[in-house]
Write a structure and sequence with these properties.
By secondary structure, this protein is an alpha/beta fold. The protein is 32% helix and 22% strand. The chain has a seven-stranded mixed beta sheet, covered by helices on one side. The chain starts with a strand and ends with a helix.
């Protein structure tokens, strides 16, 4: 495994901001924080956490820790930071650490899940004694999505248990680990077609079908639904990420004609958050989300709404996320992530001007998702440079996974109770009214 070196800085609680400022001033924008505030919130139950390291609850509440990691090429920078920290009176030390096995470390948090009284999902590496009359499905998700822990997987499983009748045919769109295909067969399905675009998902589904002696009933297919599935079915189930308002997959690029008069008038005529996406590769294969943020974005009413959405997506995909923006904007983002989503792996990189886009473009790989936070005319974060955004994206980000977000113009009072299934709010102006207004103006010209 790759060898890294960790620098740990410890200090009094009141000096945490000073410690973080030191890290940032020395060019360290990505670091781990063990924050007394976060520990207090854990103890008080202020946040809802998926899992908690019990040892963390015993950490001292009067001190903080910062941890930064350096590879072999960055040891001089680490030594310089170590000296600066000690010169300022902080306790600082370094140690060698091995790169974590991210592909397997999550297993310690995956435990048996009861779908209902008659069926449980059990990790293949755990011993489990079934209750009388209970069926067991052994599952090893591997690198695919679907362990049963996530609410959508659990709810889909419950619906399959309710609606699948003996002998039914089922199509599982975006099968991931194959968990829903397994549940369908366990519920009586005679045949399941499981399809996915991701080869890792195909491999995981086949392996899990074999573990449960269901290979003869689960037909696993790699490819797009409309290309690899021609049959009809009694039940169709699909548990895939779908926060897509306007899909861009049918457009070769983002030309001014696509992002033209009608779309721009619609964006400006509606105050709700609008998200456009173009995904060229399966979401499960994404390894990093890179977010470009305009200056003053933190003053938009919908700032925390899109930030919360991206944090949740990062958590679901178990990937890294990098934020690119001005220092004051990044500080607001850093505080929110630290307090609300401390478990995700986030990095903060200063980007002073939008003319740094060409440099950023060179760092976007095929397994990255590039997210652009834009703005409507007349809003606080709007700038003339955003008028050139369609051309910039077409020239520099052609063929990349892309998401464009127009922030919400309402306040975020309901942010903590927001779900992916519920409307974000009641819109004062409907899409049809915006279209009617656009046509009226055009006809009167």
């Amino acid at each position: 495994m790759t060898q890294y070196h960790m620098l740990k800085l410890t200090g009094e609680r009141a000096r945490q901001d000073e410690g973080e400022t030191l890290f940032q001033s020395m060019g360290v924008d990505s670091y781990e924080v063990i924050s007394p505030e976060a520990i207090d919130n854990l103890k008080e139950g202020a946040f809802i956490w998926d899992c908690i390291d019990e040892d963390l609850l015993q950490a001292p509440s009067d001190v903080f820790e910062l941890k930064a990691y350096f590879d072999a090429s960055q040891l001089d920078e680490m030594d310089e930071l170590l000296k600066a920290a000690r010169d300022r009176g902080f306790s600082a030390e370094t140690e060698a650490v091995a790169d974590q096995d991210w592909a397997n470390d999550w297993k310690r948090y995956f435990h048996p899940i009861a779908i209902d009284e008659g069926l449980s999902i059990v990790p293949s590496w755990e011993d489990y004694e079934a209750r009388e009359g209970e069926k067991i499905l052994q599952l090893d998700p591997g690198m695919a999505f679907g362990s049963g822990n996530h609410a959508t997987s659990f709810l889909c499983s419950r619906y399959l248990r309710r609606y699948v009748k003996p002998g039914d045919s089922v199509i599982d769109i975006g099968c991931g680990s194959g968990i829903l295909s397994l549940v369908a067969v366990a519920s009586g399905a005679g045949r399941v077609i499981a399809g996915d675009l991701d080869p890792q998902c195909i491999e995981a589904t086949k392996n899990n079908a074999a573990k449960n002696q269901m290979e003869d009933k689960i037909d696993v297919r790699l490819g797009d639904l409309f290309q690899v599935v021609k049959e009809e079915a009694d039940v169709v189930v699909s548990n895939i990420f779908a926060e897509v308002i306007i899909g861009m997959h049918n457009h070769a690029n983002i030309s001014p004609e696509f992002w033209g008069q009608f779309h721009q008038s619609l964006f400006n005529g509606l105050n709700r958050q609008i998200i456009m996406t173009r995904i060229n590769y399966p979401l499960a294969t994404l390894r990093r989300i890179q977010v470009a943020i305009p200056s003053r974005a933190q003053y938009e009413p919908g700032f925390y709404r899109w930030l919360e959405r991206l944090a949740r997506v990062t958590k679901i995909l178990e990937c890294r996320i990098q934020f690119h923006g001005r220092s004051d904007t990044l500080q607001m983002i850093r505080e929110y992530i630290k307090n609300k989503h401390a478990e995700i792996r986030a990095e903060y990189l200063v980007m002073e001007h939008w003319n740094e886009m060409p440099k950023l473009a060179s760092s976007i790989a095929d397994d990255h998702l590039f997210v652009v936070i834009t703005a409507r005319k007349g809003t606080v974060s709007y700038k003339n440079a955003l008028d050139r955004l369609p051309d910039e994206l077409t020239r520099r980000f052609s063929g990349k996974n892309l998401m464009i977000i127009f922030p919400d113009q309402y306040s975020d009072d309901k942010l903590l109770t927001m779900t992916f299934a519920m409307p974000q709010h009641t819109e004062e102006v409907s899409a049809y009214e915006a279209l009617h207004e656009w046509l009226r103006r055009k006809l009167n010209m």
